[in-house]
Amino acid sequence: xxxxxxxxxxxxxxxxxxxxxxxxxxxxxxxxxxxxxxxxxxxxxxxxxxxxxxxxxxxxxxxxxxxxxxxxxxxxxxxxxxxxxxxxxxxxxxxxxxxxxxxxxxxxxxxxxxxxxxxxxxxxxxxxxxxxxxxxxxxxxxxxxxxxxxxxxxxxxxxxxxxxxxxxxxxxxxxxxxxxxxxxxxxxxxxxxxxxxxxxxxxxxxxxxxxxxxxxxxxxxxxxxxxxxxxxxxxxxxxxxxxxxxxxxxxxxxxxxxxxxxxxxxxxxxxxxxxxxxxxxxxxxxxxxxxxxxxxxxxxxxxxxxxxxxxxxxxxxxxxxxxxxxxxxxxxxxxxxxxxxxxxxxxxxxxxxxxxxxxxxxxxxxxxxxxxxxxxxxxxxxxxxxxxxxxxxxxxxxxxxxxxxxxxxxxxxxxxxxxxxxxxxxxxxxxxxxxxxxxxxxxxxxxxxxxxxxxxxxxxxxxxxxxxxxxxxxxxxxxxxxxxxxxxxxxxxxxxxxxxxxxxxxxxxxxxxxxxxxxxxxxxxxxxxxxxxxxxxxxxxxxxxxxxxxxxxxxxxxxxxxxxxxxxxxxxxxxxxxxxxxxxxxxxxxxxxxxxxxxxxxxxxxxxxxxxxxxxxxxxxxxxxxxxxxxxxxxxxxxxxxxxxxxxxxxxxxxxxxxxxxxxxxxxxxxxxxxxxxxxxxxxxxxxxxxxxxxxxxxxxxxxxxxx
Length: 708
Hints:
There is one protein chain. Strands 5, 6, 7, 8, 10, 11, 13, 14, 18 and 19 form a ten-stranded antiparallel beta sheet that branches. An eight-stranded parallel β-barrel has the order 20-21-22-25-28-29-30-31, surrounded by four helices. The chain is globular, with a radius of gyration of 27 Å. Helix 7 packs parallel to helix 8, helix 9 runs parallel beside helix 10 and helix 10 runs parallel beside helix 11. The protein is an alpha+beta fold. The model has no long low-confidence stretch (mean pLDDT 96). The N and C termini lie far apart (56 Å). It has 13 helices and 37 strands.
């Protein structure tokens, strides 16, 4: 059995194995090594001394699943017991399967505890993303209570900083950058869904890490339930990041022969800053998702929520359909309020039957009108929830997640249905399948508007089973209706991760469509998510969630760098505004192949008030950038904006689009704008940059670059 294995990416290498028969460990994760590198030398170079101050004669190596029984005193990889026994054992590596050149399967056993552990490690050379997963099996007759199983990757000492994610409803994807702490940083989520406040990812980097420069290591846990991420520095010095599902006490009891599989961990290294890291994750996700933007470009949406809320009136909806088609909308989505007795959020959830008070005879009249205007039709569901004021709950009060005898707290006037119960699963599948089979529906907006509290099923914690049942339900509907696209929404960005995106085709990043907030959120989300899956809509002004007012041009450009749509009543716009919307919709259509297939590229700027980003196509012939101001700059003139991702040897024609009202106070435009652009080399555009005009705060402009 070979000791060490080299998994090779295009730009990176991962060397993993074991030379002592213990659990596998990583001895190199970083820059691509030569094919003939002596792998045993890496183990020798990274072998640990035993300092006098250590209480152990030998310092244990950091394995992929660090063991208490080996004297590891940091964040243990495995925690569990069988009636207070079998809780601190030691695994032995029994066998290694080589799955081609890109994947390994390590088979490990603890014969005293009667546990088997299989760890899989793979490298996707097309995107330089490493994946890890593990499966624990109980081989004993006595049940084993599993409390924790996490996967761990080591980081070098030069990974001196951490980027973590936090936020809240209508302010998702806030980032925090900080020095690596002396002990540990812990990010936990116990909300029962991926959560608004703790996107399950961490990025480590060297001091001075930027968009174009420096080393970066990114780790993401692909799981839509509870999670725990830990970045730890041990007292001996080594540091690591561990990712795991967070489990309630007693949530997982493994009977003889039963197994638990961890969520998959996605990890990537970049030696060229955060942009390269993001682009690698984007390529990985594009390979995972059932989404072909070449075969079917992403259609422009109109969603009725902020325009109509629960007030559905057929004549007004039909009028909106006509106005939507005029401004270039390609998919019309009817949001909440069409079913049960749903006049507000107090009632109706669970009663998935058309409310004929609002839609006499069903939804056929509206869908026919949408189709006649050349648009697709989409429909909103919130399948996992039920209102106490509903026919479903009155008939089946036992169908909810609850702990018997206790009050189950309401969230947004609703309970959570127990999807792991076959009768609940079957009811929801039948109801949604009925609408997808009866009507020509191309799209589902799948919402989830509360956290899980007391998530019990038969008295046992059930977040893990609930999450898996949700995946099965979505997968079953997709199998029955493979052409229907599904958006994952949870009061906005509460359920976004790589695993839910294996089953869905779009995310609703936030319920906040204020373009200033969206500029910040979309920028941070782009660290892991490509633009074509980020639902980004043109909002009303003032914004419904913040009350801020923004120009139409700022709203338009913000929405353009995602999956573009409208979230307003188009009928209330002036004719001039409708023409402007139509114009940018046409610009979006012209560029969406580039926007949704190219490399998303964030630009380093010298002023925090300026944010800039763009998309460069694969052969570096075309690019589209946006320059946006988030606040009033600290100086009169914005610093020159250096572009990125271009071919230094190629000549490019540069053009600009400035929406009305974007230009701030200036006596004369700079020469570049006055001459409406020009032709320049990629080298100059990236080393010298473009002098931007004076922009108002919270304004934006487009920079179009095309090779000549």
